[in-house]
Amino acid sequence: MKLLVTFSRKKGRKPIIAQAVRDTGVLINVERAVIDSSEGEALIDVPDDQCKLVSDTMIHLGATVHMLEHGISVNESECVDCGACISICPREVFSLDRNFRLRLEEEKCVLCGKCIEACPHQALTLPV
Prior knowledge:
Structural class: alpha+beta
């Protein structure tokens, strides 16, 4: 399961993700992270059965955690299967099937948003 973790650096420069790995023993895959001197946001992937443990640990360490049950979504009524999202996606989330219909491998998505900007029909949305 993917977790979106946000944290403030104002409370200190603790290595939250490393601390969570050490405290829980759960290996965490960081799929995307943006961290500057005052705050950070990381999209992490953890085993489904360890999600609550990792989430609770991160919250205890001062982070805000959102469990993401879905990645990018396609509005079927707006999508025209143009494929504009295919070439821009860094994780190869999108492809066309034999009938030239857009296919989506949601679990690969790292929520970068590049496909949303590329979609001429605004048929793609990120989870809230």
